[in-house]
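Morning run. Coffee first, then this:
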Amino acid sequence: MMYRAAVAKLFVLIILATSGPALAERVQALSMHGAPKYAADFKHLDYVDPEAPKGGTLRLAKTGSFDTLNNNIILGTAAEGLEHLNDRLMQRVWDEPFSMYGLVAREAQVSADRSQITFFLRPEARFHDGRPMTAEDVAFSFDMLRQHGHPVRRRVYGLVKDVAIITPHSIRFTFGPGYDRESVMILAMLPVLPKHYWQGADITKTTLQPPLGSGPYKITAVEPGRRIVYERVRDWWAKDLPIARGLYNFDTISYTYFRDDSVSMQSLMSGGYDLRRENDIGNWTESLQAKPVQEGLLIRSEIAHQRPEWLKAMIYNTRRPLFADIRVRRALSLMFNADWVNTSLYAGELKRLNSSFANSTLAPAATSPSPEEFKILEPWAKDLTPEVFGPAWQPPTGSLRDRQREAIRLLTEAGWRLESQRMVDAQGRPLQFEILLGEARDERIALSFARDLEKIGVFARVRTVDSAQFTGRLDKFDFDMVLFRWINSLSPGNEQLNYWGSAAADMHGSRNYAGVKNPAIDALAGAIAKTTTYDGLINHCRALDRALMQGEYMLPLFYLGRDLVFHTPDIQRPKVTPMYGLVLESWWRDTAATNAKAAD
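And here it is:
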């Protein structure tokens, strides 16, 4: 009997070991590619000061308004700062392309094929009311956000076919068809919501009632649409964890809302708030003459970073017959007078975009493809322009007059002719189109382009619409050319198919604004999420970039390559800046300097 029982037990163990995906060891960190930077016994992140003092107030500003404190759904305009209310299973760090370290989850266990992940929760994790976080809360959060959360979350969470609560502090998720390497990473960023709170509230609706949280801050004051104040949770359960040491140093953080950015700027100069991230290079250069800057009451910090800059461009809608011909797109782009725009509008401070991953290691070298890139591109040679296999795309050089002659040659080759100072087709129809804008400040760029196009007989109408109209037309691809942008990270993934894939070209609401439909680009974009090494990711990104830029789907504009920050002298930051740039959670206030200033 004992022998048969032992055999039966062994048989069960074999079945359990072989019936599911092979599981790796339990780890404290996950990385999209390669191994995480920090070992299990790390003491703190490199880009923080672990001895940074706690205390003081940080006053910030925001343009616009808000009407909800529920940032879990897409309804309403959420207040700024809500991301610090709820702790996540794992927390992202900013000196690695894409790595997650345990927060609520002490450890994770991922199957070799990344189809399954188990989270082991910290027993000490608590909500602000003192109740422990459990696997029930995790399962509830997942279910709520899968049903009602933001679209990107819903898409990834929808790939999960099974959720199993193993113990009160461990939970397993198993993916079904359609998952990729990034899916477990996105799941690890799940915010843990208190089930006992949200069961008594409606998570599907907007609210101005401060919700129960678990993170480093909680809401202490709200003036709807005008102001919100957060207070540091002094007994936050995670404050001594290595992943949190040196972060969240201000006792109080407030956001004051301004309807107009110029009024916000005036408030900064008069001492109305303490820190501003500046996105307008005009404001930055003009501030040199401002009295608070000259007197040292405001510091101007330029902080270099290594993340890809936004790919801001005037985008051709290749669904339109006019822009289906690459020669037409190339000809029009030659007429953009980038030097004049940069000098006249941006004081020469910006750089011209020459890559969809500009300012990062993912951008290709100016030379011809490396052997690794060539190997990726070669199978698709028939679907790519020959230029892809030469030097990487660079903005046109030479005088505008020389470029004008080349533009006319290309248009003539494409079947157009210059007649009575108008470019017309074989039927005498003029070459004209509309440039759609969503912001008035972009009018200067578009109008400059339109003026130069008139030199070759092309007429572009510039139309600026309100934000609702702009979003509606963008989602429906109802434009000829639009000035907008794409956002990339140092760890791009399946969003590249949403940006450039053929399936997304006819899907309203996708980000394939240019209407790209090319089997080579489908393959190149789709392969990015499947790469297993960071070197492989770099080579695939560079190959895709060559195909996109040489395809002339857009007229790239400019980027800065550094973060611009105004702040008072007593606002301090660590000596080390991570590759992603400014991390405000690591800054602090020198309260001794603040008190001395007040005494004066």
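The first helix runs from residue 2 to 19. Good start to the day.
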